[in-house]
Design a protein that fits this description.
single chain; 256 residues; alpha+beta; Pseudouridine synthase; ten-stranded mixed beta sheet; 5 helices
Length: 256
Amino acid sequence: MALINAGAVIVDKPHLNILYQDEYIVAVDKPAGLFVHRSFMDKDEIYFALQLIRDQIGQYVYPLHRLDRPTSGVLLFALTQDVARLMGQAFSDRKIDKTYYALTRGHLLNSGLIDYPLKEKLDELGDKNVSRDKEPQSAQTHYQSVAVATLPIALGKFSSVRYSLIKCQPHTGRRHQIRRHLAHLRHPIIGDINYGDNKQNPFFGDYFGFKRLMLIAKSISFIHPVSGLNISINAEFDAQWQQVFTEFNWQSEEFK
């Protein structure tokens, strides 16, 4: 799987790593920087996860959920309309369990539930006819601190740079929910150009040699709509994540 800076146009055609496939569902490991499908924001893009996986397996696919362009990890597609409808209902009924990992600014300790309503995020073009006066929507994310690290390097008014690895399990599916919730706790995700830290982000890019949103959709679990089996699909931390883990002396196999 190609590693892509999230802000760059993808020139070389990526090959998506298939994490799971049967006759009804396929799951891929979406790299950071790749759109799921065409949108009003992608006029310069030529590759999209939907078209790539369709071409790889030679079959039409139905996207079941979305991942933001800069977010990497598990992305699900249905292979039939009926399964797409059943899985769509499972998402609506909150019967799909999703786990993310985020690298954040500062030492965020312990665990808890972020119960903080979010105003709906709208596209300037795609949602131009949608009312801007809607009330904030309920949004809940459970978080757990799994590791912290410190670099003894002064940045701004601080004598060191601190990071946390946070496990997140969203109970609702609002746009940018995890990104906005962690920013609400004043521990924004590293590399987040919308809600992040304008000192930490450039420092991280210079120190590690890459720029991206440090958020991965690590796993997704659900009851298969046809077989009734429990399905759990996991993505691996890619080379850039592994570079961070090596620097901080973290062992990636501990983070499941």
